[in-house]
């Protein structure tokens, strides 16, 4: 019986995989099908994947596109095709897919590949070619530059590198970007494939050795196919052997330093002597102290450009940080002030946007772009007909030329009556705004703040899987202080069954990114541990736009939702009231819950709610708070985009800046000591309480790959 191998080529990109594909395709024992890169499994992990027609054979191009679409509909179609390839030639023993971007697939996706392949009778053979990380990045950047020059068209996507940049500037701009980083972290690729595939089914090779010695012979022996003499005169990749000669040594060191972990991993795995002999940049791994204070120098135009690239790539906060750094050093830089105004406008911060535009005009009274932008923001511009309204653009400035940012109609509609409407006729006589520029000053304060004054330093919920022991330590501390803590293991199967019955909540939170499962889980825990049933009268506290009460009503559970944003009073199922003083009758409800809300109760509202909940719950009434945010440090996080004059910081709490996209003015994380002082000791005597600590969130995060699950603690209270 002939061998049945499925070759899985996982990179690296710019690592000789095109040459390898051509060499293997010439062997009668190998049938790679209609293309080299099928991009099937990275589609599973990349929502915005698009078929790249440039990588499809010119023959039967559209047929092949349809095949790829057919693969996406059912994974069985994918393996059926490779079964067909294996069976159509008597001599064929190897079929496969060499897609370099598979290098960043997750462990769970590799497990899917192995299981599906084995169920189709294949034995998976993994090939991973490694290349000097610095050289690989240079090659990727150069290829992109060449592609743009060939197209010779204006770049539409500003997340791509601008044509006129020097190679050094492009390296500085992009060596840390996600698309480069994912393709260069060899340690992650190797860790994932070795956790799934047997070592005798993994073959490593180096790009630098691929075309010399007996590397090819070892590779064909690994695949158990006949050896054919390779045609090494055919050059698929132009290897930049002298790439470092034209690049500043400081830049090389900067990049090697960033990928130091990758270099050291490879040295440890393959041997320092091997790596040092083939990767010439590895000699810089231990030479980061010279020069000691190297900092890449980019001109202001380049910094503005870098900010725009970050913004277009979706990294809004990084773009803002770059611009704030500019005005920190050059407070009268009209370009940066204008561009900050553009960003604030598109995020709906219209007051802040106006202040930035006005300050740009103070710095340069004849600055046309800010004149234009302020005119666009004037109400008179938005009282025209719909067609005209959609034609207005805000101008983002790189240097002497402007890039136009379109104002979506939805953004225009978000404006409210608080926006100033006066027409400015002569900007050269424009005085300094009467406003004290609160938001701008806060943003500058945020920009100048140390890491210890930022959310990422304290908030372990951002990377919960890496901080499991941290949360267990908090649990132990609560127990040591005498808090009633019960450890609970979440039944994943029961949770998934619940999700099928409550698909509406799943559909509502589907677009919540890495918090999707967390949001669903919070509602599951409330439903399960409050034992919500058809005999209940339930309120979803601080519900905002949640459909939870609607969903429960449809299932025969009488439910209401309460929020400050609703019109005052009871209107259908909506209750417009403050959670600490609802004005609802005594003992009128049986169950209450707060999902991701209690932490936003500013001042003494958190304490007052405990008393109000006791008042409105009847006998055997109960409530749940999830997540209960606990931390080693008692802190309040607040957004620099919210007026800090209205934010109340608790005595004993540390004020820190939020760094995320959410403009939340107030979020409280208790330390165990302050939780006892503020919450646990203030629960009324007629309520019994306990903390549920969920012990297996790490299992859930491994089960739901790339999901951030952080509801380690839940407060339950019940009338005695």
Our measurement of the CA-to-CA distance between the termini, rounded to an integer number of angstroms, reads 73 Å
Number of helices: 30
Tally of individual domains: 3
Strand order of the largest sheet: 8-17-18-13-12-9-10-11
Content of β-strand = 5-15%
Whole-number radius of gyration?
A: 30 Å
Identify the CATH class of the largest domain: Alpha Beta
Enter the CATH topology name of the largest domain: Rossmann fold
Indicate the topology.
Layout (H helix, E strand, L loop, with lengths): L4 E5 L7 H9 L4 E2 L9 H5 L15 H13 L1 H13 L6 E5 L8 H13 L3 E8 L2 H19 L15 H8 L3 H7 L1 H9 L7 E5 L8 H9 L25 H10 L1 H11 L1 H7 L21 H13 L3 H14 L4 H13 L3 H14 L4 H10 L8 H4 L3 E5 L4 E5 L2 H5 L24 H11 L6 H4 L9 H13 L4 E4 L3 H10 L1 H6 L7 H14 L7 E5 L6 H7 L3 E14 L2 E3 L12 E7 L9 H12 E10 L8 E4 L15 E4 L9 E3 L2 H7 L8 E8 L2 H7 L9 E7 L1
Helix pairs in contact: 3-4, 6-7, 12-13, 14-15, 15-16, 15-21, 16-17, 17-18
Key structural traits:
720 residues; alpha/beta; Rossmann fold; Serine Threonine Protein Phosphatase 5, Tetratricopeptide repeat; 5-stranded parallel beta sheet; 18 strands; 41% helix; globular
């Amino acid at each position: 019986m002939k061998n049945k191998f499925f070759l899985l080529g996982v990179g690296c990109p710019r690592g000789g995989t095109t040459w390898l594909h051509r060499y293997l395709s010439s062997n009668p024992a190998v049938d790679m099908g209609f293309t080299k890169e099928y991009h099937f499994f990275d589609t599973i992990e990349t929502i915005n994947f698009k078929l790249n027609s440039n990588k499809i054979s010119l023959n039967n191009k559209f047929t092949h596109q349809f095949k790829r679409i057919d693969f996406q509909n059912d994974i069985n179609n994918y393996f059926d095709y490779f079964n067909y390839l294996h069976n159509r030639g008597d001599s064929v023993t190897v079929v496969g897919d060499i897609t370099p971007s598979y290098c960043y697939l997750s462990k769970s996706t590799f497990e899917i590949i192995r299981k599906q392949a084995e169920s189709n009778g294949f034995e998976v053979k993994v090939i991973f070619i490694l290349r000097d990380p610095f050289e690989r990045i240079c090659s990727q950047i150069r290829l992109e530059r060449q592609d743009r020059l060939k197209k010779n068209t204006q770049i539409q996507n500003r997340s791509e590198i601008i044509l006129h940049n020097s190679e050094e500037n492009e390296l500085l701009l992009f060596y840390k970007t996600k698309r480069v980083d994912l393709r260069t972290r060899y340690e992650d690729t190797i860790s994932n494939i070795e956790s799934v595939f047997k070592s005798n089914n993994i073959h490593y090779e180096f790009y630098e050795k691929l075309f010399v010695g007996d590397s090819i012979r070892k590779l064909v022996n690994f695949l158990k196919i006949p050896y054919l003499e390779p045609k090494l005169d055919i050059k698929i990749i132009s290897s930049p052997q002298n790439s470092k000669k034209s690049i500043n040594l400081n830049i090389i060191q900067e990049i090697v330093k960033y990928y130091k972990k990758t270099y050291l991993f490879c040295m440890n795995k393959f041997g320092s002597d091997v790596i040092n002999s083939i990767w010439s940049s590895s000699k810089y791994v231990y030479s980061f102290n010279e020069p000691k204070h190297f900092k890449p120098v980019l001109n202001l135009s380049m910094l503005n450009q870098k900010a725009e690239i970050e913004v277009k790539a979706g990294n809004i906060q990084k773009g803002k940080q770059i611009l704030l750094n500019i005005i920190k050093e050059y407070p009268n830089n009209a370009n940066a002030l204008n561009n900050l105004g553009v960003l604030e406008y598109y995020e709906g911060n219209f007051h802040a946007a106006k202040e930035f535009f006005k300050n740009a005009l103070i710095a340069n009274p004849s600055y046309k772009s800010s004149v234009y932008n302020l005119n666009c923001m004037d109400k008179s511009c938005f009282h025209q007909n719909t067609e005209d309204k959609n034609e207005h653009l805000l101008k983002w400035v790189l240097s002497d030329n402007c890039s136009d940012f379109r104002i979506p109609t939805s953004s225009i509609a978000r404006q409210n009556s608080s926006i100033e409407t006066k027409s400015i006729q002569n900007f050269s006589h424009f005085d300094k705004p009467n406003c004290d520029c609160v938001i701008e000053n806060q943003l500058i304060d945020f920009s100048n703040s140390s890491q210890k004054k930022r959310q990422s330093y304290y908030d372990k919920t951002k990377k919960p899987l890496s901080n499991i022991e941290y949360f267990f330590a908090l649990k132990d501390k609560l127990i040591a202080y005498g808090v009633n803590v019960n450890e609970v293991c979440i039944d994943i199967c029961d949770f998934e069954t619940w999700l099928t019955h409550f698909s509406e909540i799943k559909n509502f939170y589907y677009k919540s990114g890495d918090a999707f499962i967390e949001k669903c889980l919070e509602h599951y825990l409330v439903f399960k541990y409050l034992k919500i049933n058809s005999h209940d009268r339930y309120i979803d506290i601080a519900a905002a736009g949640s459909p939870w009460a609607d969903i429960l009503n449809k299932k025969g559970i009488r439910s209401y939702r309460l929020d400050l944003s609703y019109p005052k009073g009871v209107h259908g199922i909506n209750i417009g009231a403050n959670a600490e003083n609802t004005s609802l009758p005594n003992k009128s409800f049986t169950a209450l819950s707060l999902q991701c809300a209690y932490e936003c109760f500013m001042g003494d509202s958190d304490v007052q709610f405990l008393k109000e909940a006791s008042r409105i719950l009847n006998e055997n009434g109960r409530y749940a708070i999830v997540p209960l945010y606990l931390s080693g440090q008692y802190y309040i996080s607040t957004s620099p985009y919210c007026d800090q004059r209205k934010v109340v910081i608790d005595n004993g709490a540390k004020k820190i800046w939020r760094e995320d996209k959410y403009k939340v003015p107030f979020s409280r994380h208790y330390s165990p000591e302050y939780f006892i002082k503020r919450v646990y000791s203030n629960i009324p005597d007629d309520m019994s309480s306990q903390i549920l600590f969920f012990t297996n969130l790490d299992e859930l995060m491994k089960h739901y790959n790339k999901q951030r699950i952080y509801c380690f603690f839940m407060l339950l209270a019940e009338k005695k």
